[in-house]
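Quiz preparation item.
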């Protein structure tokens, strides 16, 4: 990403400072912007889960069979844990959309969330 930004901004390089300083400033600003973006919308990574939670995720991903009762409980606990990490309005939209089976139109009518964000929530990939 930094390499691309350097070439995109090459016309802005005045030559008043050494090239290395100019590139390092772009690198620092790019990294700071990425850190800010992650603070606004943090990701939960696979490594952030406990070993038991990782096992549940791997088991769910590798099997399409009906879950045993103990696996159903572990899966439900993991979903509850992940939902608690969301903001209340995000949790509500997930509940309405996926758990209650409401349509985007129905949720939009409740004014819970704007339609463009709803559509991206519906079609967006799940983060790990």
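Solution:
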């Amino acid at each position: 990403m930094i390499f691309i930004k350097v070439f995109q901004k090459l016309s802005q390089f005045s030559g008043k400072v050494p090239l290395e300083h100019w590139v390092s400033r772009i690198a620092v600003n790019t990294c700071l912007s990425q850190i800010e973006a992650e603070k606004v919308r943090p990701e939960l990574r696979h490594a952030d889960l406990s070993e038991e939670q990782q096992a549940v995720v791997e088991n769910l991903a590798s099997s399409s069979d009906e879950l045993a009762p103990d696996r159903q409980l572990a899966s439900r606990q993991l979903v509850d844990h992940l939902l608690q990490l969301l903001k209340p309005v995000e949790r509500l939209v997930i509940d309405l959309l996926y758990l209650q089976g409401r349509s985007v139109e129905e949720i939009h009518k409740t004014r819970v969330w704007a339609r463009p964000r709803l559509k991206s929530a519906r079609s967006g990939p799940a983060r790990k």
